[in-house]
Design goal:
Layout lengths: L51 H10 L19 H19 L3 H12 L3 E8 L2 E8 L2 H20 L6 H13 L6 H15 L2
Helix pairs in contact: 1-2, 1-4, 2-5, 3-4, 3-5, 4-5, 4-6
């Protein structure tokens, strides 16, 4: 009898209920070692086939890049796969200890809560810049939620006493509980408020 595959040989990926809109874009295929080496990079919507835990790890590599000007860099993270993976494992252990729930399920819940639904786009029309409201595509919603969670982690732990795993676990738990202390939730509300103003 084959043993069940678990993330890091600790957590199973249970049947987690996901929002219909993002269900196809959150892959919960369990992997003992979530690193596929860009296997899905060249296929259409390939990142949606990549495990959500691996996508979180990949986002942690370059979390500091913010906005078009990239005022903050996070080059010190790049290439340290083992270290970044350990940050995620330690964060998941903290989440499990605090919430008494499967951390994979908590992560998925956090992504759903912090994924923005609407955004503002700017385009030129007859010599003037027009701002218009658009619905965010499901894949971008998941991407933005992960990016904002990682940026919140970086912001709360870089050059501070708080460790990266403590900051990541706090960010995920706050996003899961829809708490405004979460950077991802704050960013979601900011984007949607901006969109509401452009109606």
């Amino acid at each position: 009898m084959e043993s069940e595959v678990k993330y890091f040989n600790i957590w199973a990926a249970p049947d987690i209920k996901t929002e219909v809109g993002v269900k196809k874009y959150i892959s919960l295929t369990p992997l003992f070692f979530p690193k596929t080496g860009g296997k899905n990079a060249k296929t259409a919507f390939g990142k949606s086939k990549t495990s959500i835990v691996e996508r979180l790890i990949n986002k942690l590599f370059v979390v500091g890049h913010k906005g078009k000007k990239h005022k903050i860099t996070s080059g010190q993270n790049v290439g340290n796969t083992y270290r970044t993976m350990n940050i995620v494992v330690d964060a998941f252990k903290r989440i499990e200890k605090q919430t008494k729930k499967n951390p994979i399920g908590v992560l998925v819940g956090a992504i759903q809560n912090s994924a923005p639904i609407e955004e503002v786009i700017s385009f030129q029309r007859r010599g003037i810049i027009v701002r218009d409201i658009v619905l965010t595509s499901p894949q971008r919603r998941v991407d933005l939620a992960l990016r904002h969670m990682c940026q919140g982690t970086f912001k709360n732990s870089f050059n501070k006493k708080k460790t990266a795993d403590a900051s990541l676990s706090e960010e995920i738990i706050n996003a899961y509980n829809n708490n405004a202390k979460s950077y991802a939730i704050t960013e979601k509300e900011r984007r949607e408020k901006e969109a509401m103003g452009a109606r």
